[in-house]
Design goal:
Layout: H1 21-30, E1 39-44, H2 66-73, E2 76-79, H3 89-98, E3 104-107, H4 111-116, H5 123-134, E4 143-146, H6 156-165, E5 172-175, H7 180-183, H8 185-197, E6 201-206, E7 222-228, H9 234-253, E8 257-263, H10 269-285
Helix pairs in contact: 9-10
Pfam families: DUF72 (PF01904)
Protein name: DUF72 domain-containing protein
InterPro entries: DUF72, UPF0759_sf
Length: 305
Amino acid sequence: MDFGRLPDLRYVDFRLPPDHPETARVLARARATQPAPAGLHVGCPIWTNKEWLGTYFPAGIKEPDYLHYYAQQFNSIELNTTHYRIPDAGTVRRWKEAVGLGFKFCPKLPRSISHERELFQADDLVVPTARAFESLGDNLGWAFLQLPPHFGPEHLPRLERFLLDFPETVPLAVELRHPRWFADQGLADAVYATFEALNKTLVITDVAGRRDVLPMRLTTPVAFIRFNGHSLHSTDYQRADAWAERLAAWVAQGVHEIYFFIHQKDVRHAPVFATYFLDKMRALTGIAVPPPFIIPQPVQGNLFG
């Protein structure tokens, strides 16, 4: 994820802001129906990670088998392939067959809807997209709409109309990027209230260069976090500690599900970071999600052994 990425981290204040005042109210209302344990779903943006061959993937496997082995390492994925094409029924069926029952796909809405049509007159695309996402069944987590950086508050009526019309059968999270969504607190609060009323989750994006997209406002009992790491820099671990502490507090208050997606420039760093983060979460919450593990590789026999 290039959004908000900086080459120099020396002057970045990575501290998490305090919770938005409305977050406690949303969680208090959800506390009575909180599952035990709360769901913790951790993943990456892609599964075709050739750099994992011989470590987190068996050496020599073919690309069609990557998802099966990815799902043994992570229990969720930020499904970016759907941003570029609507999957057909056969593709969705193969995805489901490759993963276990508890695995969650979080598909990104096609860019043809978000970036090309910009939510305008997109019903002919929304209907087949929703149908494809629905066919994931129990493997569907939260789909998410990533608005383009130039899509600002002047388009709020269009966004509201889109969210009102979006099929309720597909849980939807929304990522805002234009700075003006966050510059006026009154406007931001009105947008968050709309999301809450429509049961849409606000995506929280933790990136170095845009600390404004980190409002710590939950609009549903679901935390959907996109985390941009920096090659296992010391700040990655400090931020993992801070997130684990904040998420543990939200679990104590009543959060139902957590989706935490890890973006690292070098995909070999994602499993290392995930292991550290999951260990912290287990220590603070008791929620035990198996961390990624290096797969023992077969050793060829010694010719003279």
